[in-house]
Automatic annotation (TrEMBL):
The modification Phosphohistidine is found at residue 48. Its EC number is 2.7.13.3. The gene is cheA44H. SUPFAM superfamilies: ATPase domain of HSP90 chaperone/DNA topoisomerase II/histidine kinase, CheW-like, Histidine-containing phosphotransfer domain, HPT domain, Homodimeric domain of signal transducing histidine kinase. Keywords: ATP-binding, Chemotaxis, Kinase, Nucleotide-binding, Phosphoprotein, Transferase, Two-component regulatory system. It comes from Hymenobacter cavernae. Residues 403-544 form the CheW-like domain. Residues 1-105 form the HPt domain. Residues 198-401 form the Histidine kinase domain. It catalyses: ATP + protein L-histidine = ADP + protein N-phospho-L-histidine. The lineage of its organism: Bacteria, Pseudomonadati, Bacteroidota, Cytophagia, Cytophagales. This is Chemotaxis protein CheA.
Length: 547
């Protein structure tokens, strides 16, 4: 597997060779028409970009040569020099040398292995001083140019819509692959099974190759935020230091596009409402400069993006009080909630619409919209905070949105799927391991009391509230899937567990797309259509209908 350094070197190589080709073209145009301003401006821009990229990669000699060349083109652009006489062969030689140095990097050689670099730099300095360059053999240089081989870059740039289309086709292929594999097992023909197994391996490799081609560095988005932070901090009259961590973590480009507005919102809120004014921070014993960190890391198959500030933190007591005032929970029930459950109210639709909610460290405004964006990806949004110390928002994201891990289960002789992103665990419990409080079934899971509901009752209950559960109704072993959404766990009783597998989720057609409880459909290897449950919608439904 390629290292990050190798990937960056290949990207630099591809761009640098493109710059070289473009510079060769423009300097030829300039030789024909020395007053060609568009060609001159492009040469200046390309040299400037190459200089910056080379220095960033540590290729200082290329950066130095590009800097000298940029200076000469700048003088020509400002009419202090003209593209005539001895200037022409020196600049042509400079571009050729840049091409040789780039190719040397591609061959794993040092750039100083290219001959005559020092002499070229000296000549460029002479041109800047208005002196004649040193005995250039134009004939020999022309002969070398005439014998030069043409090269193409090893990298190509592909429009994202083409990759989207390719990934959709791969998704269709995987569905058919699973059907063929199932049929081959049912028929029992050994030759067919061997072919199906080979198809499985090939399509699996194709799937991951396409997914890999869509990956981009998180830094491509992170690196846009220093300017955002500077502008917001200036508007708020605050001092903020931004730290970026994990820019080389890779994620699907479409996922990064979808979370852009969410990250922007979280960063603006952190500066505007999370971080205190400089004097207030000093009075609290904090440094006047607020600290804001954006970091990315991988955790199993997920990418975690954190937005961390060292500001006020979230006042749990205030959030609890507002939740009661808004009728989201009774006063008695609110006192039993832990801090995570209370903070979850910040993501409830409409919770932060009133002006006074901004007193809760400003963390309420628009968080429900952020949560919906993350939910649409099958991800999670978490918040952790300590009053007076700061707040951390964590976006838990899949690396790809095309193929998702899912848990398959059976209910009323039909197969259903739940995305693994929202699946906490599966347990099988006997009636004596369950207890009833206020008409709600509860299970003690890892020292936590988790409400449990029959998925059958939840799906077929109608518009009214769920009826209280009675002990006599709970008989036999209960297979329970523990799902987790918005820091709330819920146990769903199903008929039986089936298996875990990767699925391709397709949107439902009208009018089924209006049913909130299902996030889409997938096709199983048997050809059976399988509904994919929407865990956020199920959780909200249970909270609205619980006894």
């Amino acid at each position: 597997m390629k290292s990050r350094e190798q990937e960056y070197r290949e990207i630099f190589m591809a761009e640098a060779l493109e710059y070289y080709d473009a510079m060769s073209r423009h300097i030829s145009e300039l030789e024909k028409t020395p007053t060609d301003e568009p060609a001159l401006n492009e040469l200046f821009r390309l040299m400037h970009n190459l200089k910056s990229n080379a220095r960033a990669m540590g290729y200082t000699q290329i950066g130095e040569l590009a800097h000298h060349m940029e200076t000469i083109f700048g003088l020509i652009r400002s009419k202090e020099k003209s593209f005539t006489g001895s200037v022409v062969p020196v600049l042509f030689g400079g571009i050729d040398t840049i091409g040789n140095m780039i190719r040397a990097i591609g061959d794993g050689q040092e750039t100083d292995s290219v001959a005559d670099v020092d002499e070229l730099l000296a000549n460029l300095d002479r041109l800047v001083r208005g002196e004649e360059p040193v005995l250039i053999d134009a004939g020999a240089a022309a002969e070398d140019d005439a014998n030069r081989k043409l090269e193409l870059s090893d990298l190509v740039y592909i429009q994202i819509k083409k990759l989207d289309h390719l990934l959709n086709l791969v998704g269709e292929l995987i569905i058919d692959r699973d059907r063929i594999l199932t049929l081959s097992q049912e028929i029992g023909n050994s030759a067919l099974q061997a072919t199906a197994a080979h198809l499985f391996r090939i399509s699996d490799e194709l799937q991951y190759s396409v997914m890999d081609a869509r990956l981009v560095n998180v830094g491509s988005l992170f690196n846009k935020f220093p300017r955002v932070v500077r502008d917001v901090a200036t508007a708020e009259r605050k001092e903020v230091e931004l730290t970026l961590v994990g820019e080389d973590i890779q994620i699907d480009r479409n996922i990064l596009q979808i979370i852009t507005d969410s990250l922007l919102h979280l960063v603006r809120n952190a500066i505007g409402h999370g971080l205190e004014q400089p004097q207030e921070r000093v009075n609290l014993g904090k440094p006047a400069i607020g600290q804001l960190t954006m970091s990315a890391q991988t955790e199993r198959d997920d990418v975690l993006i954190h937005v961390i500030d060292d500001g006020r933190g979230i006042d749990i007591a205030n959030v609890r009080r507002k939740a009661v005032e808004r009728g989201l929970i009774s006063k008695e029930a609110a006192t039993t909630l832990d801090d995570d459950a209370v903070r979850a109210f910040l993501f409830e639709p409409g919770f932060s619409m009133a002006q006074e909610v901004t007193e809760i460290s400003g963390r309420g405004v628009g968080l429900d919209v952020v949560k919906l964006a993350i939910d649409s990806l099958g991800g999670q949004l978490r918040v952790d905070s300590t009053l007076g110390k700061g707040t951390t928002f964590t976006l838990v994201l899949p690396t790809s949105i095309a193929v998702k891990g899912a848990l398959l289960f059976e209910l009323d002789e039909r197969s259903y799927a739940i995305p693994l992103m929202h699946t906490d665990s599966v347990v099988s419990l006997w009636p004596e391991q369950l207890h009833i409080v206020g008409g709600t079934l509860l299970a003690d899971i890892q020292e936590e009391s988790v409400p449990v509901v029959s998925l059958r009752r939840l799906l077929h209950n109608g518009d009214g509230p769920l009826k209280p559960v009675h002990r006599a109704e709970v008989t036999g072993r209960q297979d329970i899937i523990i799902v987790n959404y918005n820091n709330r766990k819920l146990g769903l009783i199903v008929d039986r567990f089936l298996r875990q597998q990767a699925i391709v989720i397709k949107s439902m057609s009208k009018p089924l797309d209006t049913i909130d409880l299902f996030g889409g459909v997938t096709l199983l290897g048997s050809g059976q259509v399988c509904l994919v449950l929407d865990v956020p919608a199920l959780t909200r439904l249970f909270l609205a209908k619980r006894p």
